[in-house]
Each structure stands twice: as C-alpha cells, then as structure tokens.
Amino acid sequence: MAMKIRLARGGSKKRPFYRIVAADSRMPRDGRFLEKLGTYNPLLPKDSEERVKMDVERIQYWLGQGAQATDRVARMLEAAGVVAKTERSNPEKAVPGKKAQERAKEKADKAAAAADAGEE
Fold first, then answer.
1. Which ranges constitute the DSSP H helices of the chain?
2. Where is the composition biased (Low complexity) (predicted)?
C-alpha cells in the first residue's frame, strides 16, 4: 500500500483549512485517511504558532513505515526540523523565454551603440 502524508482540505469556500493526514495514495484528497497527524491554517500569519500544528512522533512513525510526504508537507516538516532540507534547483525556471532574450539583446545593442556615439 503506497502511503502518503498529505493535506486534506476542509473549511468553506475561500476560507481554507487543512488537516495533515496519513492516507493511501489511491484515496481521494478529501476522502478516507488512516490517521490525522496535524492541522494547517493558511489564513493565520506566517509567524503564528497556530498556523501549523503537527504530531511529530506520529509523523516520524509513518515516515519510518515508508510513507512519502508530499512537497508542501515536506516543506512544513523541513521548517519544523523533522526531516533534512533537500536541495531544490530548477535552473531553467529562471531563464527568460526566447522573445525576452531577443529584447534584452536588442536593448544591449542599442545601449552599446549609444555609448559608442557618446564617446566620439
């Protein structure tokens, strides 16, 4: 059974509230889960202690049983110091598109031409 530690959404429309749960990966996002491990309230300020509450012992138990944390939950666990930080690198994300690169090249050419004209 493929286990995931993930978020299950609750709350009303435009007022999200999440439970951190251990669930079978084949179950629906808000469906059946095995155990509630904590809560996450994104409406609270980032420095609030009430924003993320986790039962760290049970999360470590499930990780020991082979459960995989989703990306968002893994970031919360890293912030809490439960798991080691992983290096996330997507260098292609920072590279501008073709048209933006062409515009930047044209702008650089114009600036170089203006600098040459100004020196003479």
1. 56-64, 71-80, 98-119
2. 111-120
How does 68-78 read in b/e, with b if 16+ C-beta sit within 10 Å? ebeeebbebbe
Question: Which ranges of 15-97 does DSSP label H, i.e. alpha helix?
Answer: 56-64, 71-80
The predicted-structure confidence for 66-81, as pLDDT tens digits, reads as follows 999 998 999 999 988 8
Q: What pLDDT does residue 54 have?
A: 92
pTM over 0.85? The answer is no
CATH topology (fold) of 3-80: S16 Ribosomal Protein; Chain: A; (3.30.1320)
User: By the 8 A CB rule, do 16 and 39 touch?
Assistant: no
CA 116 – CA 120 distance, rounded (Å): 7
